[in-house]
Amino acid sequence: MREISVRTGWVAKLTATSFGVGRAFAGADRDAFVRGMNARGVRAFHDYMASAKDSVDVYRRAEAALNALRDVPVLTIFGERNDPFHFQAEWHRRFPAAEQVVVPNGNHFPMCDDPGLVAASIRAWMR
Is residue 46 over pLDDT 80? Predict the structure, then answer.
């Protein structure tokens, strides 16, 4: 899968459409984004993900860190149409008092889908 992604550039191209950063980027910005997703970077990302999925120690340490933060204020922001792993529900389970924002029609990059809403939500939450 990694080499298919590297050779075709499909992940960067898909991400540069209205599915991702393309909602907020004009043509030249989209082109720069795609160029920045070069073979080395894509390979590194895939290698990182592959090693993380089998790292029991990483998950044990992450679980301990999250448990220690259970009572701190939390803001989560997700796109309405892309939470395939149900992270929003998991964050709510871990942090019941979390403020949750859902970007209408948002996909995987809510900050690109509606930068104004995301910025306003963060500002309001910080107050």
Answer: yes
pLDDT value, residue 14:
81
pLDDT digits (tens, 9 = 90+) for 47-95: 888 888 888 898 899 999 999 998 999 999 999 988 888 888 999 999 9
Q: What is the predicted pLDDT for the residue at 67?
A: 92
Beta bridge partners of 100: 76
**Could you tell me the CA-to-CA distances from 65 to 58, 60, 61, 71, 114 in Å, in that order?**
11, 9, 6, 12, 30
Residue type present at position 89:
A
My answer on whether 31 and 4 are in the same domain is yes
Torsion, CA 46, CA 78, CA 111, CA 45, rounded to 10: -10
Domain boundary residue, one of 54, 81, 99: 54
Find where tokens 């529900």 sit. Answer: 89
Residue 22 to residue 26: CA distance in whole angstroms: 7
Q: What is the DSSP string of 61-91?
A: HHHHHHHHTTTS--EEEEETT--TT-HHHHH
Range of the structural domain that residue 70 is part of: 63-127
Q: How far is CA 122 from the centre of its chain?
A: 16
